[in-house]
Amino acid sequence: MKKLNKISVLPLLALFAACGDDSSSARPSSVSSVDDLPQCTELNDGEFRFVEDKGETYACSQGFWVSENELELKVKSSSSRIYSSSNIMNGNSSSAKYSSSQNSSSSAKSSSSVKSSSSMSSSSEEFIPGKVIKGAYYGMPFGSGDPVIEVLALNDKLEYVDSTAVYKGYVDINTGAFVVRGLPEDISLAEMRVEGNLSGKGYESNYQTDTAFADLKSVDSLYVNSGMVMLAKRIKYLVQKQGLSFADAKHQAESELQKAFFVEDKFYDLEKINMLMDSTDGGLWASAISSYKGRVGKYFAAESYVKNGKAEIAYDTLAMNIINDLFGNPYSYFGNIYNKSSWFCKKGMRDRLTMVADSITGRGTCTKERQNESFIMADTSFSKRLMKCDAGAWREFNTLEKDTYLWENPCKVGTMKQTEQENAYNRRIYYCNDKKEWISAMELSTDIPKDAYLNPNINYGTMTDERDGKTYKTIKIGDKTWMAQNLDFRGYKDQSLADEKLMSNVDKGRVCYEKKQVYCDLCGSMYSWSATMNISKQVMNDTATVEGLIQEHHQGVCPDGWHIPSYEEFKNILADELNLESDKAGKYLKSMAGWRTVLSDTVGFAALPCGRYWYASNISNYASEDFAYDTYYYAYDGVTQVRVRFASKSEAYITLDKPRYWHSTGSPYPDYHSYIRCVKND
């Protein structure tokens, strides 16, 4: 069984290659059944065969045999040929020219008796009098319904011979194929209008029309494409204002269009180019140019658009209009040439189209001498688009370059700066590194020192841990002084002063994220519960002993004069200072940068998303996890362990988790390693 299903493709690239003679006196070669159809290949694409047991014609299109009844017009004489009865009776010049066609149509059947081609047999269709034009339209991506193609005869001045004589057909929405029947046999110049709804089914109608000119003399198949539409105004101008013949005007307009696109491989007669199947340079260029139709084609009727092979913009009103329109939606016109996966790459097309962009925008060519030079594609009416000359090609600014374009460059080392969007959710934040370059601070990074994450609007204090000489920023919250940075005690600088019990617990229960010191430098150390409380694991199994060891201000691993925070002390920050529930307070305690959004850090606590170290049941081993997403702090409530979690899933979310058996070796919680913020013993 041969392939008979219809291919659905994007309307812009849809193709139905309709060739051959379909006059009223000849039928395509026939086969008995669809099983007798030859293989549909590129070699016989566009071939027609009449299938006898189906009583209808099939066409070879893109590797598939498709029923012509599915593709061609649902013709009714009342819609496909519309005549003014008064003109016919009065015998005016336009109707007289086509008297033979009109007489035959009027004598054959009245408009009320002509059936739609979808309901007519193939043999009936063959006897519809007049010329038949078949082909394909690939232009606007119609969303629903049956796009209509209308043909009107024109004289040498591209004026309507008879504006009431309209020959109408339908464009298949999936393949772009169309058939128009009943045209005058001697029709030559014609206007072809394609109208359809760009909106999909169920959406508000958005009807648009494409108009193109063609010479239908001795032609029975052609393509209507965006390139032809782009040339229409220009051709009409050259014929009506410059006095050129249609053939000369069409040739000149096509030449000008090619010059504007820096095309070296000349091609003409866009209506003959199968843009999907033609892999020659001309076919590829025709496809590329057609994709640029839009606003460029809208203005192409200007008298002088191209001079010396370049688009003139300095003194040309048309070109300035084009530029203004391009700025309105530049991605639609220049976006594809910067996409390395785009089909524009073929045959060096990107280089040529880049030349077009260079010329139209006025930015010139990106050369080695202009490396890192910037160019603003902007107009007062539209948003600016920033381009940079990089490695011999223009590229669009990345987000960082756009945000910092007007900032101090080179920047002042250590500066943290936000963009100015009114909505905090849309802001971004950057840091000036040692190279005096802006880098993103949206995600937590070891390339940014820990002090940079503090709130610059807060007046921090300092404290020094005499055991190792490390200094930490501190913050007063209510009547309590907290460390504003995570503890990172690893050992004594003077071993003769070392607390052996503490060091035994720390050595067994301290870890850096991913066991890399660079993370401890930024985030501090994570401690097991045993190391946090400075109580050995063996003792933790003795509940009575543990209860006697826990003090009101329990020092644990903290420096002298400081203690592990209690549950109430954490809770007081939320309730007393912020007057918020725990699930709403996170964004006021998290650092301004590092959480993938810009936060307020009202009290200056500056919690960083430094992750955790825990025993992961899914891998049956310890693992580092959640860096740049979550963070965990230890606190206690009597003899109960408390883990305070700042989660990225909600910028305001904090949990105060109390495991039931904090001291039991059967509980998973002693396997967690968390960060510590010590509180001063005031």
Structural class: alpha+beta
Helix fraction, binned, reads 10-25%
Let me know the number of strands.
33
Strand content: 15-25%
Helical stretch tally: 21
Number of domains: 3
Mean pLDDT: 75
Give the helix/strand layout.
Layout: E1 30-31, E2 48-51, E3 56-61, E4 64-67, H1 68-71, H2 77-80, E5 81-82, H3 85-90, H4 93-97, H5 99-108, H6 122-125, E6 131-138, E7 144-153, E8 166-170, E9 177-183, E10 189-197, E11 207-215, E12 221-225, H7 226-240, H8 246-260, H9 281-291, H10 293-298, E13 306-307, E14 310-311, H11 317-328, H12 331-334, H13 349-361, E15 374-379, E16 382-390, E17 393-396, H14 399-404, E18 416-418, E19 429-432, E20 438-440, E21 461-464, E22 471-477, E23 480-483, H15 500-509, E24 510-511, H16 517-523, E25 526-528, H17 529-533, H18 537-540, H19 543-549, E26 562-563, H20 567-577, H21 586-589, E27 610-616, E28 621-627, E29 631-637, E30 640-646, E31 654-657, E32 673-674, E33 679-680
Parallel strand pairs: 1-2, 6-12
Antiparallel strand pairs: 2-3, 3-4, 5-8, 6-9, 7-8, 7-10, 10-11, 13-14, 15-16, 16-17, 18-19, 19-20, 21-22, 22-23, 24-25, 25-32, 26-33, 27-28, 29-30, 30-31
Helix pairs in contact: 7-8, 7-9
